[in-house]
Design brief:
With 324 residues, the chain is mainly alpha-helical. Helix 2 runs antiparallel to helix 3. The chain starts with 7 loop residues before the first helix and ends in a 6-residue tail after the last helix.
């Protein structure tokens, strides 16, 4: 259960932020913990910035796994993220955000949400700008197996539930209503089936065109996808991955975030979280799917989005051998 350890402090901050909506001392504790998070991020960033110089001074060679890893880029990204995080704790500096984002700059819940979106965006950008090195090192350090997949998606689910105030501002019934988790009607299931078919058609057509026009990029992303998800290309593995991602991602993005941030911005945040596709046509496809799922959430409910996401992932993994 080590997967949960890095999320204990952020999860505590989410709970404190919900308690701080109407209680000043909890609000102050929220901002204090956010300050601690930014301080830890800053220290890690500064350490990474100093590693190349320390290696030169001590004449220590890098291990083969870390050869070519861009410590300076990662360190600069984390340092910048920490700086923006500290700025978000200053009320006069964050109030202009409300001109561009649908948030209450004085709400600890909204400040926390924007802060974590900032962290997601910055870390994803770091991975993209590292030319795949950060992702390669991550794949070598972390084994993506069924336990990891279920645990990581459980983290999304827990953050969604805590983020909308389960146990702090809402009971179970109101939490499910806020997240849009309710039994889908028959027309919702029919619409879900149509959307799954449309997504699979889009994926296959985009893959054919991408493979023909940009084969090197297509092969690079395919190799990463196989390294990440190749072991799930069986009925059981595809079902496990599909259900886990469907429940975790849709509850967080479409259930918790979309009612606050809207369809386009939520789709963008959803896309940013799929850095394994790098800067490629696949990332555009993810954004289109995010927009479509956002429309479905508004048109029906989050449960239907879960069904579409799970079925799409399940079938997409099973037909992976038939792709170019």
């Amino acid at each position: 259960m080590w997967v949960f350890l890095p999320y204990l402090l952020p999860l505590a901050i989410v709970v404190f932020a919900n308690l701080g909506v109407n209680r000043r001392r909890w609000r102050l504790l929220t901002y204090a913990c956010l300050g601690l998070l930014h301080t830890m991020t800053l220290l890690v960033g500064l350490l990474l910035l100093s590693i190349p110089a320390l290696l030169r001074l001590t004449e220590t060679p890098l291990s083969p796994e870390l050869a070519g890893f861009r410590f300076v880029g990662l360190g600069f990204g984390l340092t910048l993220t920490a700086g923006l995080g500290f700025a978000s704790l200053v009320a006069p500096l964050r109030r202009p955000w409300a001109r561009w984002l649908p948030i209450d700059p004085d709400s600890p819940v909204h400040v926390t949400a924007v802060t974590f979106i900032l962290y997601l965006g910055s870390t994803s950008l770091i991975v993209l700008l590292s030319a795949g090195e950060a992702l390669r090192v991550g794949l070598e350090l972390v084994r993506i197996d069924s336990t990891y997949v279920v645990a990581s998606q459980a983290v999304f689910l827990v953050f969604a539930l805590a983020g909308v105030g389960l146990g702090t501002r809402r009971d179970v019934r109101h939490t499910l209503a806020r997240l849009g988790l309710r039994r889908p009607a028959m027309r919702d299931l029919v619409l879900a089936a149509v959307m799954v078919a449309a997504f699979l058609t889009l994926d296959y057509a985009a893959s054919l065109l991408w493979h023909r026009l940009w084969p090197a990029s297509y092969q690079a992303v395919t190799d990463v996808s196989e390294a990440l998800f190749g072991r799930f290309a069986s009925p059981y593995g595809a079902l496990l991955l599909g259900l886990s991602a469907g429940i975790g991602e849709e509850t967080l993005f479409r259930g918790a975030l979309q009612p606050r941030f809207g369809i386009p911005l939520t789709a963008l945040i959803f896309t940013v979280g799929h850095v394994q596709y790098a800067l490629s046509p696949a990332i555009v496809e993810v954004f289109i799917i995010g927009l479509a799922l956002g429309w479905l959430r508004r048109r029906s409910n989050t449960t239907t989005c879960v069904a579409v996401h799970a079925a799409y992932n399940f079938l997409d993994l099973l037909i992976m051998p038939f792709f170019p």
